[in-house]
Design a protein that fits this description.
With 206 residues, the protein is an all-beta fold. It has a single domain, classed as Porin, CATH 2.40.160.50. It has no helices and 10 strands. Strands 1, 2, 3, 6, 7, 8, 9 and 10 form an 8-stranded mixed sheet that branches. The protein has a two-stranded antiparallel ribbon with strand order 4-5.
Length: 206
């Protein structure tokens, strides 16, 4: 493997090719699902992870934030730490180059009662119970916030023992309708001038 030569030291120091290259990553993902009413749930998630030691991460192991998951109010890889990468091989690739990422997500899910069955389901006639029943969808109110960054000394970096200030985090708010995992969402960035974005999902957000 030949390391890319256009990745500046501000993003990643040169990779050694003598077999001694090594790095460590760690991820923490905390989730809390709480029912607050017969039809309502509050779901919370905090995720943090990235480089914790050794040599700099190769680009294949780096991070970004923004896009349909997890910050749907922003464009794909809105924060990717890649502005200093000049290698023509990465032109228009939106490569992810951050060392660490942190994310907080919250959503309220309220079930909308909408029952439909193809036949009778009276207790007196068990044989005629419907084999096809559709339940109502969930109305989802969501909020997300997070940031990705480079670790180290110098402009655009943070020391390894520090987190980005909350004021620098990206955040969005949105609404969605989730029907058994199939969902349609609309989200709007609140910390940048981004347009309203729509997302189609085939599974729950988390």
């Amino acid at each position: 493997m030949k390391p890319a030569t256009g990745v500046p030291s501000a993003v990643r120091e040169p990779i050694r090719t003598d077999g001694s290259y090594g790095f460590s990553r760690l991820f923490l993902d905390f989730r809390r699902y709480t029912r607050i009413s017969p039809s309502g749930r509050m779901n919370l998630r905090v995720l943090a992870g990235g480089w914790i030691g050794g040599d700099p991460l190769p680009l294949q192991q780096r991070f970004s934030i923004g896009g349909p998951d997890p910050l749907a109010g922003y464009g794909f890889r809105h924060s990717a730490c890649n502005r200093d990468i000049i290698d023509p091989a990465f032109t228009n690739t939106q490569v992810a180059a951050c060392d660490r990422v942190i994310l907080a997500q919250a959503e309220y899910r309220g079930h909308l009662s909408l029952h439909w069955a193809s036949g009778s389901s009276t207790p007196e006639d068990e044989a005629s119970k419907s084999l096809l029943t559709l339940q109502g969808p969930d109305l989802v109110v969501l909020a997300d916030a997070g940031q990705a960054w480079l670790v180290g000394d110098g402009p655009g970096r943070l020391p390894a023992d520090r987190l980005p200030t909350v004021g620098s985090w990206l955040a969005d708010l949105g609404l969605g309708v989730d029907w058994g995992g199939f969902g349609v969402y609309a989200a709007k960035a609140v910390t940048a001038g981004e347009p309203l974005r729509f997302t189609l999902r085939l599974d729950h957000r988390f």
